[in-house]
Amino acid sequence: MDYVVIERIAFDAILAQIDECAGAVRILLKMITPRSLDDWVDNTVAKSMLKLGTRSLQTMRSSGRIGYSIVDGKVFYPVKEIDRVLTQSYKKYG
């Protein structure tokens, strides 16, 4: 069995980098994990899920085509609504 001896400062630096990587992995997992239909997403995530711009999403809200809530001036959409909009706009070919 081989032993490797390193200074405490180097060991702490390695641990800090591992913690940083673990945090980045947690963030990425949250982004790619399928959301429950009971969850809510903000305007930015809704735009990316629907592949729409800010103004298009505003028009959908104004016309009542998508449900939403505003909390402290920030717009949130239930994932159920986004799923419904995607299902309605999906066209089957063939």
The gross shape turns out to be: elongated
Approximately how much beta-strand content do the residues carry? 5-15%
Number of strands: 3
Largest sheet: 3 strands, antiparallel
Return the structural class.
Answer: mainly alpha
Order of strands in the sheet with the most strands? 1-3-2
Would you identify the regions where 5 or more consecutive residues have pLDDT less than 50?
none
Helix content: 55-70%
> Please, how many helices?
4
**If you compute it from the alpha carbons, what radius of gyration comes out, rounded to the nearest whole angstrom?**
22 Å
Helix and strand element order = HEHHEEH
What is the typical, i.e. mean, pLDDT?
88
- N-to-C CA distance: 64 Å
Key structural traits:
single chain, 94 residues, mainly alpha, three-stranded antiparallel β-sheet, 4 helices, 12% strand, elongated
